[in-house]
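User: Before I run my own analysis I want an independent prediction to cross-check against. Here's the chain; please return only the structure tokens and, at the end, one sentence I can use as a sanity check.
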Amino acid sequence: MSTYQIAVVVGSLRRDSINHKLANALVRMGPPEFTFKFVQIGDLPLYDQDDDGNQADAVKRLKAEISASQGVIFVTPEYNRSMPGVLKNAIDHASRPYGQSAWAGKPAGVLGASIGAIGSALAQQHLRNVLAYLDMPTLGQPEVFIQVKEGFFDAAGNISNEGTAQFVKGWMDRYVSWVKAHAKV
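Assistant: Structure tokens:
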């Protein structure tokens, strides 16, 4: 049996982030042959093409963690109808310099949560456009746009509604199959 390491990129830096909570609940649903590495993005400098030849240590670490993974899960909130700037900054860093993208070929999954009624639908669409350009085969279905209300997570950090938990578990099962079909192991 092959083992797969999956990089998990959460697009929120907020201490009590619902997307970080969602990512934690999600990775507990993964199968034993999958390990999940949460990738830190809050310490990256702002992307500046002038730095491509001398990338910061935090950028080198990010690229190494993505390169060592067989897939990537993006869990993103929605800020002003798009993905957060910190997430776009991380994507830009790991894609540079041109021709040396750590993202290329990595099977991706995208989901997210918000307190708003449409979850993070528009942020996810913008993110999917970027991932297509970066040559990341991205799972299309099922789409996961979660609206989080009081009591969504139980005291242990799991999704409290059984139907929602099963839906998210179904997404994880599809993502696992996606990675197995597309990853370079």
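Sanity check: The beta strands are 4-10, 34-38, 71-75, 108-114, 145-147.
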